[in-house]
Amino acid sequence: MTEHILLVVACVLPAVVWGFSRGAGDQACINLTPNHDSTSQNSTPPYTLIVDTTSIRQGGVVTVTLNATAAGDTFRGFLVQARCTKCTTADTAIVPGTFAKYNASDDTIQTKNCAGVDQNSITHTSAVEKTSAMFTWTAPSDYDVSQGIEFRAAVVQTRPVWWNTLMSEEISVTAAPSSSSHTVLGMAVVIVSITASLLL
Length: 200
Prior knowledge:
The protein is of the alpha+beta class.
């Protein structure tokens, strides 16, 4: 009897882990909802999404950290995206920026292409328990500065226990300096340098 039980457990366990063992599936891309035959928790997520800045320029980079908030808390899977906060379709507007690993050698995370856009999401690589994940995100160089950005995440603690209500602080985007302003600034520096040398 014991052998039969062990055989059943051995057959079922890979299926349980499979749902998030190699990263979030494509079905999670739009609504941040994993295909786990369960619903999102209504409680406050025991995790935080921390950004290193709340204001960037077009093409700027944000460092994002997903953390468990209490000692002993872990997560097995996650999917993080940048979302537009002032778009009329904010719930489905994935900002087409570019995610990357913070540490190139980190083999616990990987970028993901959602809705056919390269590297616009980031997820896990295995079901190993984690307490944090760190990555960067580069904003589009032509991002509409009238729109805000926030990071949203689905985080899986165990297969039936997950949250998709985790959000970072909102990030504002300002226009990048134009090439002409760079030219004017460069000329001003040259003029000041020449003037200073003449006065010496």
